[in-house]
Amino acid sequence: MTVELTPVVERRLGALPASAEFLRRLDVAGIIDELCPVRDVAHLTHGQVIEVLVANRLSSPTSMVRVADWAGKWAVEEVFGADPELLNDDRLARALDAIAPRLEEITGSVGAQAIAEFGIDVGQIHWDMTSISLFGAYEDQEDAFPQVKHGHPKDRRVIQAGLAVARDGGIPVFHRVYDGGAGEVAQVVGAMKALRKIADRKDFLLVADSKLVSYPNVTALLGAKVDFVAPLPAAQVKPEVYAALDLESAELVDYVNERDRERNIPADKRESYRALEDVHLMAGPRKNDPAHRLRRILVHSTGNAKGQQAARAKRLARAQEDLDKLQRGAGGRHYNTAAKVEARIGVIAKTRRVSDCLRTTVTTDSDGRPSLAWHFDQGVLNAQAAADGWYALVTRLTPEQADAAEVLRRYKGQGVVERRYSDFKGPLAVAPIFLEHNRRIAALITVICLALLVFCLIERQVRQALGPEQTMRGLYPDNRAVRPTGRMIFYQLDSLMLRPGTATSPPAILISRGAEAHLLELLGIDETRPRWLGT
To answer: Is residue 347 within 8 Å of residue 326, measured between CB atoms?
Structure first.
């Protein structure tokens, strides 16, 4: 008698175990199912479907019409208990429709769960917004949901997302979706009120970019007694103010930026910072508006100074090349009148951004042929050089809460939110979005923000488990010690395969590289007895 053996089909596993474990700890499915229940006869709950969509974004982002194919090739059924045949685009769309009216509640509940479950310190929050470009007419939009509108850039239809990131691990504990045309300055106060509720504390520090510093925002933040740090818009501080400062009298700040630290730059070649402080008076738009008296921290960065010097030298060199060419061509076929020469000077001054320092004289001879003499005003260039490297911060923090150096150190974490937007638009592939309805667009952006939350929590967990140095080997072929990023972690886990269980053997994770086993251990996932497989 011949016994036919059923072949064991291995499925792609990748980071699904890690994603499932962290989604379980966040209780994403439970929160969604409580807010958006389904009928008892449903094969999948909305929470299950959303978790699968989150896992897809973390593993292999794809359009909704292809999620079922992805789930069939990956071990989605084994990990999430979802039959791939049930994950068609119609079922996914119904799940997005179901959560769309409850997005703020879902976001708040999951954010609060993340803070409690993972012990995230939300004493300092970094806030920023970004635009997501969309293509299509979007003529019939639902008023109850964020609208796709012309925004920034003005020639595109966009929708906006605001992200609040805790300095602790760069964890995005809160997000909101906004109209494409909504002004960023108008969104901050509402977001801060929601954050206070989620974080269950009133004393956190808000760090944001210069768009925070508007009279209405500052008025509201001062009224709500929210501590904040933000850079002043460049237009609010004249270059002469910076040029008059005494750099040597400024306090040298004990701070090493992340780039220099990770590259082990020698101390004498690192970017250095100095700080002074004075007062900034912010006037209101109306004469009877009371002026706000804010503490101003004046910061000098050697890195910024070098960058500004190099950029100016490049502008001047290009302008000189253009002007020399024009000087040689003046009176020729293309520039045979003074008006044409003047017009070209205007173009060069604008495109090369040298209007403030360029001095020109256009003359004509007896035959009307034009000639050009020009030079750069050295006095203006010297004043610009004196202001190189300086920028200003404003804050509600008192000197007792933080001296000038400490205000700068707290502000320097703002780059973390920019990096999270890079993850948001990079490996999690927020664009392109192939959806017709603004309701579903808002819901899908929330799904991607939940994926970003899991992505960042996994990165934080690995780094914390590595100890104070937060470095590990095995992530690169040369085996150098590096600080693992979320992208590195997911790339290493991507090759994991699952061998399904049989009558005689349980399911098993197939590991081909040592880094994979180490990462699973750091994440607290036992590859021999994975609870997410029910073994």
So the answer is: no
The per-residue b/e assignment along 38-57, b for 16 or more CB within 10 angstroms, e otherwise, is beeeeebbbbbbbbbbbbbb
Per the CB < 8 A criterion, the answer to whether 141 and 147 are in contact is yes
Tell me which amino acid residue 527 is.
E
Which three-class secondary structure state does DSSP give residue 508? strand
Task: Compute, in degrees rounded to 10, the torsion defined by CA atoms 53, 54, 59, 64.
Answer: 20
Continuous H helices in 376-534: 378-387, 404-411, 415-425, 438-465, 486-493, 514-522
Distance, in Å, from the CA atom of 155 to the CA atom of 182, rounded to the nearest integer, reads 15
Number of helices and strands (H, E) in the chain? 19, 15
- 3-state helix/strand/coil string of 183-243: CHHHCHHHHHHHHHHHHCCCCCEEEECHHHCCHHHHHHHHHCCCEEEEECCHHHCCHHHHH
Q: Contacts from 433-438 at CB under 8 Å and sequence distance 24+?
A: 433/132, 433/134, 434/63, 434/64, 434/65, 435/64, 436/136, 436/138, 437/141, 437/142, 438/138, 438/141, 438/142, 438/145, 438/146, 438/147, 438/148, 438/159
Task: Please list, residue by residue across 412-436, b when 16 or more beta carbons sit within 10 angstroms of its beta carbon and e when fewer do.
Answer: bbbebbebbbebbeebbbbeebebe
Count Cβ atoms within 10 A of the Cβ of residue 148 and give its class: 0-12 exposed, 13-18 middle, 19 or more buried.
buried
Residue pLDDT tens, the chain, 535 long = 454 545 556 788 889 999 999 999 999 999 999 999 988 878 899 999 999 999 999 998 888 889 999 999 999 998 999 999 999 999 999 999 999 999 999 999 999 999 999 999 988 888 888 888 777 677 788 888 888 887 665 556 788 888 889 989 899 999 988 888 766 555 777 777 788 888 777 778 889 888 888 898 898 888 888 899 999 998 889 888 998 999 999 999 998 887 777 777 888 888 999 999 999 999 999 989 999 999 999 999 999 999 999 999 999 999 999 999 999 999 998 999 999 999 999 999 999 999 999 999 999 998 889 999 999 999 999 999 999 999 999 999 999 999 999 999 999 877 777 777 677 777 666 556 667 788 998 999 999 999 999 999 999 999 999 998 888 988 888 888 888 989 999 998 988 888 766 666 666 777 766 788 888 888 888 755 544 454 3
Cα–Cα separations (whole angstroms), residue 63 to 87, 89, 93: 12, 9, 12
Looking at residue 472, the DSSP 8-state letter turns out to be: B
Return the SS3 of 277. Answer: strand
User: Are 498 and 13 a contacting pair, CB within 8 Å?
Assistant: yes
Exposure on the CB side of residue 341, measured as CA atoms within 13 A: 27
CB 452 within 8 A of CB 28: no
CA 291 to CA 386: how far, in whole Å? 29
